[in-house]
Design brief:
The chain has 3 helices and 9 strands. The protein is an alpha+beta fold and 165 residues long. Strands 1, 2, 3, 4, 5, 6, 7, 8 and 9 form a 9-stranded mixed β-sheet that branches. The longest helix is centred in the first third of the chain and has 18 residues. It is globular and about 40 Å long.
Length: 165
């Protein structure tokens, strides 16, 4: 999927949904830079970002001609890799994209794409606990109790996708 929508009239976004092997080397470099900026620098998490799941995932990113890194990004991992279900993770919105509804649009697009690729399945996420209500607004439900991951409280959440007739 590649479609343009404008956050501002002067700065249209190019939403790209790609498998790992379809990403260009520069695209991949900028995606990794965005993930490191948010998780490593802003949230000061120390963890192995290149965890072996990227090659078993779709990558959804909102690109702007105004910067090299994507404004928003999420990884949608195939069922059976992290969980039995598909999984959305590595969800980031860079500073330049914050406050514009990009995070909400990103998650909605990730869910919609997963529903098209794996109809009738479910999506399981490891959400930062402070974002539980945000994910509940998309239909996710908490499963289990909060736990500590990379020094941040997380909650496992599940969304059952409906089959389209």
């Amino acid at each position: 999927m590649s479609e343009s929508t404008g956050v501002e009239a002067a700065a249209p976004l190019d939403w790209r949904w790609r498998r790992f092997d379809a990403l260009g080397v520069h695209e991949l470099q900028y995606i990794y830079a965005a993930r490191q900026r948010v998780f490593g620098l802003e949230q000061q998490c120390i963890y192995l970002d290149a965890d072996g799941c990227d090659e078993h995932a779709f990558h959804l990113a909102a690109w702007s001609a105004r910067q090299r890194e994507p404004l928003a990004y999420a990884r949608v991992v195939d069922p059976g890799v992290k969980y039995d279900e598909a999984s959305i993770g590595r969800v980031v919105t860079l500073g330049a994209g914050r406050g514009r509804g990009l995070g909400r649009e990103l998650v909605a697009r990730a869910i919609a794409q997963a529903a098209m690729v794996w109809p009738g399945t479910a999506i399981r996420i490891s959400a930062q606990t402070r974002l539980e209500r945000f994910y509940e607004s998309f239909g996710f439900s908490s499963v289990g109790t909060p736990y500590l991951e990379d020094g941040i409280d997380h909650t496992e959440m599940l969304l059952q996708l409906r089959s389209t007739p």
